[in-house]
Design a protein that fits this description.
Blueprint: H1 2-11, H2 17-34, H3 40-61, H4 69-83, H5 87-94, H6 99-115, H7 117-142, H8 149-159, H9 162-172, H10 179-183, H11 185-213, H12 219-226, H13 231-259, H14 264-284
Helix pairs in contact: 1-2, 1-3, 2-3, 2-14, 3-6, 3-7, 4-7, 5-6, 6-7, 7-8, 7-9, 11-13, 11-14, 12-13, 13-14
Amino acid sequence: MATDCTRWLKAHRLADSRTCGEIGRLSASYAYRCWPAAGAEELLVLTRWCSLSLLVDDALDSPGGRADQHLGAYADHLVSLGRSDCPAEAAQQAGGSSGFVAAFDDLLARLGPRMGPDWVRRFLRNCLLSLEAFGWEAGNRAEACWPSLASYLANRPHSSASLVNLDLVEYAARTPLTPDQAEHEDVVALRRLAADCTAWHNDLVSWPKERAQGDPHNLVLLLAHHEPMPLPRAEAEVRLRISARLAELHHSADRLARSVPGAEAYGEAVRDWAHGLMTWHDLATTRFESSHAPA
């Protein structure tokens, strides 16, 4: 998977050879751990998606990233696809040869026929919200601005791309939700709980790096700054919050089996994704020590 992803990144000219190799390996380890029910075909697509998402995040964090024409074209393209009656078909017809736009279109052309138009629209909406949150964080960094705790918590499910990846849980586990299921309050609650506990766990393992970089977008650092409290106490507070969210997540997944007919498999897949991602944070990635990429 890592080799395929590296070749795909190079074909779309998304980064230099060294970075393509690093991102390819990182993305493959993420996909294996977070989507254990996925088959070989799904893992290829999921690994490529992870690599694109990581590179877009990195590009926004680079000097001048918010003004980058390629990123602007990418955002405009997502908006255009979201307005299309048939986004997956529009992606197939776009015909870009390389770059973020062409890479995204290639993935959507593979995802769309399997998942259907309602899922594609939801996926596009969450991709746009994620891109906006990436930009919000990049803007704060450029202006050396500490966000409020409330604004950070509201944006974190999007800046972590968690809701996008939870859409992909349906693809990986072959458990597409109907529109009614996706909008059910218990499904929405489960997704938010999974997004919170995984994003906060990311913050728990990455705060020393982000502190060294002067990046305030981390729950540990924001608690220490706004409450205020010593960093060890803030770290302990985040651990408590994660434990509480995990307990709620398991309770919510159990309830889903009773309250949303046909969604039990999705609930189990969300549990697998959350635990896989937190394991990846702890054991399978050097991203938090890497000089080229933020958490």
